[in-house]
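Task: encode each sequence below as structure tokens.

Item 1
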Amino acid sequence: MTMIIDTTLREGEQSPGVRFTPSQKQQIIDGVVRAGVNEMELGIASPLIDTTADLLAYCKNTHPGLARSLWSRCREEDIRFAAELKADIVSLSLPASDVLIEKKMEKTREWTISRLQTAIAFARRLGLQVAVGFEDATRAELHFLQQLAKIARQGGAVRLRLADTIGTASPAEMASMVTEVAKVAGDCRIFVHCHNDFGMATANAVTAIEVGAAGADATVLGLGERCGCTRLEELAGYLHLKRHAEYNMGEIAVLCRYTARSLGRVIAGNQPFTGEDIFTCETGLHLQALQKHPETYEPYTPETVGARRRLLLGPKAGRKAFIGHLRRKGFGVPEHIDDDTIRKMRYCLADPTATDDTLAAFLTPLSSAAIS
């Protein structure tokens, strides 16, 4: 089954100004589990972070079926801390691009290979299940990335995480990278971690899955560094509706709204899956079809995400929309309304104080003419 790893409490909390209270973190964990996600990256493995142990304990006691992972540098003290906390999975992170190896770490490719081998071996000796994340994989030289993937597989890693760290990959580039790394990954599953700097995080995650990746990271509301990451609600929604994965979209919508309230943020009305206006329609041609068969202009039902449909009569409404609306309201409406009356009714609706009675008044001359 295609799998989402939620990293709201690790990557998501790296967003500037984002700080969740212990209670809020528990509520988010509960919501993620109700949504059908079965693994969460709960934070960073570091003795300097004193809340991680409580989160792992909460998950173990409250959601024993949830896989608990921790992000970790390839440092023995951090890996040992993850083992002491009895994390299910430790996600070792190491830069893969020359720009990060040389300019951030001030190291070499040879150092990177050595550190990777040492860290995996140490983690496995401590009894940890090991995942390896390659930071900035989309800017790494392909043959070197493949070499790192092969080393991770041979060392006993169960999965690889390929990160588009600064969000510059296109779906075509993502597809190519995943396909090429898969050639040397063997039974080591491939996941992706996509950033949204070019607005393509969800598209890149979906593309990676379509070419064979086992899954992707996601965060509630797309929280994360800079422009954020793949949105949990978008990725789960796509997988649920297009690939029949068992995610509870109603619960995800509730989780998103709770998280937004906790952060004092407003979800845009047109935000996919969670916006209040995504089932609101005012355009005449669409209104006509929606009144007959909602599937004509809705990719999924409002009930899927706990929303409701709103068909508005506005300045863009057409003849049939006016007739249908006023008849449902109990007004007598002639079979035909001339174009001039339609234009007047549209103009009238540009005034927010207009009522159904105001609209019906335009029909009086028509009704009189019909009688005479």
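Item 2
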Amino acid sequence: MSDEEIAGADYHIAVMLGEVLEYLQPSEGGLYFDGTVGGGGHSAAILEAGPSARLIGVDQDPEALDVAQRRLAVFGDRVKLLRANFADEAEAAASGSEPLAGALLDLGISSRHIDSTERGFSFRSGASLDMRMGGPTSSQATAAELLNTLSEAELAEIFWRYGEERRSRRLAAEVVRRRSERPLATSDDLLDAMNASLGKRLEVQDKARIFQALRIAVNGELDALERALPALREALRPAGVLVVLSYHSLEDRLVKDAFREWSRACICPPELPICICRGVPLGTTLTRKPVSASLQEISNNPRARSAKLRAWRKAA
């Protein structure tokens, strides 16, 4: 690993850094939670902006944690890094002894993941169909294992639910037909199945949707987000802030719906004549609409184009 990768800058460029700091306000100090620490870019900025701030950084990927460890070593015992799923650690934080001043989830995969053919997150030719966030030592099933073992109906559900592919059944049938002759092992195998079933003039966005859908299924990403959101809400101290950066419409919808419900005083069904629920909002949504990266940032880092930031503050 090069010195630049060890420093973290080339491992992953932190998206919307200024906006994240604006909502989290780490200068006020306290304990912060970075559930997707990656190369440590956001974590370093939080600790630099808050001289008395402390941070728990979580990632499933041992390589990412190695980079983060080296980058954040200068902060000494102000930072604690853990290899785990962010949902598990969010639930642990909710039952912890110290509430959080702020929490961040950057749900995008790192630039390193995308650029590595061994990790199999991209559809570039020859990439291995792996896609496990936890890396090659993870006990999770790989994308190839899912493609080669799940039923046709289960594959169609993945392509439809996570990839919003209206021809999901056609693609699933083609995958099953091809694997009966030879197991799918690389990105080329899946792309060939897509070309045969969906047409050879697929747009880049179409390819990205299917590969992303498979990645979501491999890592249980939406299930983890559904678990983590309420846990982090409970873990926050009064007036603590939760910031989420999402890169997929389904992720963003989960975050938007959660923040909207938490910000309502009444969540009773409309047919009830009187309110029997909590009667008060749990906090306030700070972003009426999702915040997007600036044109300048997108020019410098094109992968920031699809990022959407939402923020919520717990009631004081």
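Check on item 2: Confidence is low (pLDDT under 50) at residues 1-8. Residues 270 and 276 are 11 Å apart (CA to CA).
End of task.
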